[in-house]
Every structure is written in structure tokens, then in C-alpha cells.
């Protein structure tokens, strides 16, 4: 519940509503003013947290909408799920319920692929588990000659990817397939790049996640099984690696503490036809990306 301001003889201004919104979010956020401004911008059509014409009165219908969004955020609903969009790698993507919200650390996956392939751009890209489409769409934007395929089993991610594909004018370059990863891949079709950010959180850790994640994001996109490695097994113990063309890359995001599984003593240490795994750490020092190059 939120304390809806009442008893004013005149409509409250945007600035006054911002002060109220900040107070309502004090117990929730390290930067409540930023989120209060961001939610206001989302109803005024602003960009980011920029709010224009703060002294002007806020119309009653927009005031009611602001109260609703503040209440949702106080209930720990993720900010980007409330606004319906999220910035990722320089682009604004739509997000909706049932879709994992793209994280800033996942931008490292895009960055590392680009660093390795800017001189030899991939012509064909496959993403396993497309989610919002942020990864595959960002890669297609970086590699304008490439065509892509994204596979997901759930309807919500497929619908979200369709929206983002349209927003970025990628309809003619990005195909979306519904189904399991291996079932939806055409036999014998090679890709210069296969990329994935699979679920990698151990099942026993899901209930300890922050409320925003545990209560509002799809567990199917988070839960990697008992040890967090189930989806890597599905990918690496299948024919999927053999869909990578000679000289191509396979790149995935991994969880903190999972590097061992891809090193010499781990279950994914040797992948036939590929060189040794390369690891890249995120800004916090956690191994975040693993990349292989096909040698044969």
C-alpha cells in the first residue's frame, strides 16, 4: 500500500509528485530519487530518468498511474518490468512478464564476441534461449551482414523477441523458432557463431534470490538444476557444438564459481574439435563468459 496524497486544493505538480514518490521508495532503494524520476519519465514519455517541466501540474489520470507504478515498485516488482523497457548495449529493448530482464553484465558477452570477430564478422548466428532478444538483436546490429536464428520454448519470450525484432527493423534478418534447442535446429546447418545465456543458478539457491528476481522473473530462465549446470550439459553433450562452422565461435555466459566445470578437471573440459575454453571476468572479478573456437 502507498500513502496517496489527498486534500490538496490544486493538482500537485510533477516536482511535488516526485518528492512524494521518492519518500515512498526510501525503504526500497539506495537511489529512490532516481527510480521515482524514472517511473515519472515512463508515464510522461521521457527518456531514462529525465523529467521535463517539473513545475507543471500532473493530470489526475497520470497521477493515478504514477501512484500505481510506485505501489508496484514498493511491492518489489522490477523497475524495468514496470516501465516495459530496459537499456542494453546502447539500445532500448521491450521486456514483459515471463521474460528474463537483460542484465548489464551480459553486455560483456556481446563485447567479447565483437572484439574477437570485428575483423572477420560472422554471417550466421544462433542464439539458444532468446529471452527478450537483446543478445541476438545486439549482435545483428553489430554485424550488419549477418543473419540470425533464436530458439525458445516459451511463448512470452518469442512474443517479446518479435516486438524487439520489429522495433529494430530486423524482420528480414532474424528468424524465431519455437521448441527445444536441439529439436529446432535444422540438421547440417552450420553457424559461424552460437551464443547462449542459459539458466545457471542452482535449484536450491532460487528461493534465496532477491524478491525482484524470485517473485517476478521466470524460474525456467534462472534454474539450472541441482548444480546449475543442466543447460550446459544439454548444449555441450549434444550435437549443437557440431553446428559451429570451422573457425567459428561458441560463447556462453556462466555463473560465478562455475569456471571449474569448463577447465581441465571439469565435465566440459574437452569439446571435440574446439580449442581450450577462454574465460572473461566481469567488473566484479567473477568469471562471466566462456568462449571456444572451432579448430577443425
TrEMBL record:
Species of provenance: Leptospirillum ferrooxidans (strain C2-3)
CDD domains registered for this protein in UniProt: AdoMet_MTases (cd02440)
Any GO BP? methylation
Any idea what this protein is called?
Answer: peptide chain release factor N(5)-glutamine methyltransferase
Q: Which UniProt keywords apply?
A: Methyltransferase, S-adenosyl-L-methionine, Transferase
So which domain of life are we looking at?
Answer: Bacteria
List the GO molecular function terms: nucleic acid binding; peptide chain release factor N(5)-glutamine methyltransferase activity
Q: Where is the Release factor glutamine methyltransferase N-terminal domain?
A: 16-84
PROSITE patterns per the UniProt record, alphabetical: N6_MTASE
EC number(s) on file = 2.1.1.297
Question: What does it catalyze?
Answer: L-glutaminyl-[peptide chain release factor] + S-adenosyl-L-methionine = N(5)-methyl-L-glutaminyl-[peptide chain release factor] + S-adenosyl-L-homocysteine + H(+)
Q: Which NCBIfam families has this protein been placed in? A: hemK_fam (TIGR00536), RF_mod_PrmC (TIGR03534)
Cite the InterPro entries for this sequence: DNA_methylase_N6_adenine_CS, HemK-like, N5-glutamine_MTase, PrmC_N, RF_methyltr_PrmC, SAM-dependent_MTases_sf, Small_mtfrase_dom
Q: Where is the Methyltransferase small domain?
A: 106-205
